[in-house]
Write a structure and sequence with these properties.
Rossmann fold; seven-stranded parallel β-sheet; 3-hydroxy-2-methylbutyryl-CoA dehydrogenase; oxidoreductase activity; alpha/beta
């Protein structure tokens, strides 16, 4: 796919993996719209890359519809969608408080929140973007569009406390191939990246020694992933017309331990 003057939407685009991808797409000539809940960061980034910011909660049909409408009014129908919006939490399925002995259960509402944002939100954006792509004339090779989703190595190596997060990311992996097959006759490709341990805003609260230990656990290169690593693979998935229906780990060969 040629990025020059091509409309793109990046969810979770105000920071981290999404921001790096938005910058890379803009540098390649794409017209980028960001969906995010953080207005301050989103507007600052779109001013930098000459894009457009849309405040969108991916759990809401109305928000997502309004976001796509605004992005398309500014840039035209997108041919590119990169889904980076995501959240996480950590609760044991059932655990015992060491001090009191109290038995605690994973709150169903906390489980549902992660599933709704990460899995259902990703699917919602795919559906609404792909429906718009179907209105486009096919480009070179019959392609109408390309979609990249964000899962996690937790889809395969979920750690203690990650039941909701792993379920949400495993769902993204599980739906990649069937969605790619659903959309194949319309010339829309779908792929998913499974990042390992990345130095994103979610890691900012970790002490330096924790980051150093995590980096040392990566076989090679012995560092945390950086958002630009993700952006590089996302753009290759978008660019390469034969990349379709794939779930690719981007993790320096790490395999996560139970904790």
């Amino acid at each position: 796919m040629n990025f020059e003057n091509t409309a793109a939407v990046v969810t979770g685009g105000a920071s981290g993996l999404g921001a790096a991808t938005a910058r890379a797409l803009a540098a390649a000539g794409a017209k980028v719209a960001l969906f995010d809940m953080n207005t301050e960061k989103g507007e600052a980034l779109t001013a930098e890359i000459h894009g457009i910011f849309c405040k969108v909660d991916v759990r809401s049909d109305d928000d997502v519809d309004a976001g796509f409408a605004r992005a398309r009014e500014a840039h035209g129908q997108e041919r590119i969608l990169v889904n980076c919006a995501g959240v996480g939490n950590a609760f044991k399925t059932v655990g015992r408080d060491k001090a009191s002995g109290e038995i605690r259960q994973f709150p169903a509402a906390a489980f549902d929140w992660v599933i709704q944002v990460n899995l259902v939100g990703t699917f919602r954006c795919i559906v609404k973007s792909a429906a718009g792509m179907l209105t486009l004339e096919p480009g070179e090779g019959g392609e109408r569009g390309a979609i990249v989703n964000t899962a996690s190595v937790a889809a395969e190596d979920g750690q203690i406390g990650q039941a909701a997060y792993s379920a949400s990311k495993g769902g993204i992996v599980g739906m990649t191939l069937p969605i790619a097959r659903d959309l194949s006759s319309e010339g829309i490709r779908v792929n998913t990246i499974l990042p390992g341990i990345f130095d994103t805003p979610l890691m900012n609260a970790a002490p330096p020694q924790v980051k150093e230990a995590l980096a040392a656990s990566v076989p090679f290169p012995k560092r945390l992933g950086v958002p630009e690593d993700y952006a590089s693979l996302a753009l290759e998935m978008l660019r390469n017309p034969y990349f379709n229906g794939e779930d690719v780990r981007l993790d320096g060969a790490i395999r996560m331990a139970p904790r």
